[in-house]
Amino acid sequence: MTRHSTTMDAAALAGLAGRHLDLVQAPFTLPRSRVLVFREDRAELAEQGGADGAPPATALRVHTSEYERWLDDCRVIDELAVQDASGLALPVTGVLPHAVEFGDGAATLTFAGASALSVGGAAGLSVVWTTPDGERTCVELTARAPSVRLHIAADRTVRHEAFGSQDDDLAQTERLWLDWFAKCPIVRDDLQQMAAFCWWVLGANIVELPGLGDARGVVPSKIGYVGVWQWDAYFIAMGLRHGDPALAREQLEIAFRFPSEDGQLPDVVHEAGVLATSDDLPQADRDRLRRAGSQIADPNAPVPLTKPPLAAWALAKVLEAEDAPEWAREQLVRIRRSQDWWFTGSDLDGDGLPEYGHPYSSGLDDSPIFDGPLPTTAPDLGAYLVLQDLELARLAERYGTDAAGDPAGHRARAARTLELLLGLWNEASGRFEARAAGERVASDAVVGFMPLLTGALPSPVLDSLIAALGDPERYALPWAVPTVSAADPDFSATRMWRGPVWVNTNRLIVEGLRASGRDDLAHDLAERTVALVVHGGGPHEYFDPLTGEKAPTATTAFGWSAALFIDLAVELSAGA
Predict the structure, then answer these.
(1) What is the Cα–Cα distance from 387 to 568, expressed in whole angstroms?
(2) What domains does the chain contain, in order, with CATH numbers?
(3) Residue 284's pLDDT is what?
(4) Which of 143, 235, 369, 556 has the highest count of CB atoms within 10 angstroms of its CB?
């Protein structure tokens, strides 16, 4: 059972998380808020790889977080500083989840609700800010009004008010974060600091989604990924289950809430609707999709956009933490229909093994397996479909066939899919290979390890996959597992899905090794994965497999990396 902190522990955990809040890779923000505060010089520091050794910041920059908008397009304040009576800006001298400190405590910035910042300090100090249009405002703090609130509207305009003591704003913001950290799982001592930071990431990435009532979406990142992507929701729920099962269930609910008439689940649920087909994209993106469209699917029809079928697996994991039978039955109806859709709506060549109609639906859209024509028959998709049918069979036996369907039918379909999946095995190359519009794809990519999830591979096939994981010329790099073999001509240590290590694919391989009876290797890869996140300085989107550092173009404070670090840390700490 997961251990959680007490209120006293929560303050200590908040302090541990604060060690990572550099205002460069981890901004100052609040659960449910769309406001982000960075160091004013964050771009320069990001090129340096972080704030270590850099001079103290004297100004901050404020942005909002919006769906499909670049951070620089969402600027609210270009420079926010606290100045002394001589006009000298005070340096930032401390950051905790609830407060940013200037001048060793001479002034403090905190939140005043989700859409306002509060700055308070000694009389004689001034709060100065400049908006993107060049307008500069200076408010002097006085004995009667030692604080100022900056209210940020939806159109990014700023309204300010001077007021008395800031104590209530500080107390309310601190209480919100302490309540969050009180749910943080307690793990091994060597993993606890990073677990606290990862728990902060999950809390910081909570947003409200207009149009969904008071639904709380834990987004992949407030820096560029403001929406609930389907498989991100699955991985994020797996981490949340260890501290907040209700919030974990809420992520799955959002992902399942808007199926199409034929059962397909959307790729993304966001504040303006859903992304389920190419018709939901801007015109430029639709044109680009047409040019990359399937050679089999109707080029004039919308291209379905979804994510890999891991819904039942994620549901089962969440239910391990806290059973919810009625809720589970409601979700299973949608999952069963989405599984059926893959066989009726995405088996584009009619051979019984569904394909990816577009790279977006794989989640690994820059993988070299998609360099050829579409549709793509991929070993990861076949493996996920086998796993999902087996999970549906188990869940049907637990929660009833009305919701999940006939267990025997699911197992029979899983067996047929497995047989077709094994047809992708190339004995000569010793790996599972994708097919592009029926033609062999030579790329040696991480998707070839996903059949481990079936737990039913023939011994020679299993042995070959284990050998590949241990081969220093292919996958046993200093930091494993790269998403493309180092021996493949398309390998890049830094390009998305063409070599960097992703925590989610590592987590799936860990699961596959366990399912295949290799608990020793699963444990070793789990340890190496959490060590990677610690070494890399945080739960980044993806990591260089040669250095273990954040890849230059990777997003920081990334949701599923944080969640899966917690998931692995809890498992590794069990019995420790």
Answers:
(1) 20
(2) 30-179 (no CATH), 184-573 (1.50.10.10)
(3) 67
(4) 369
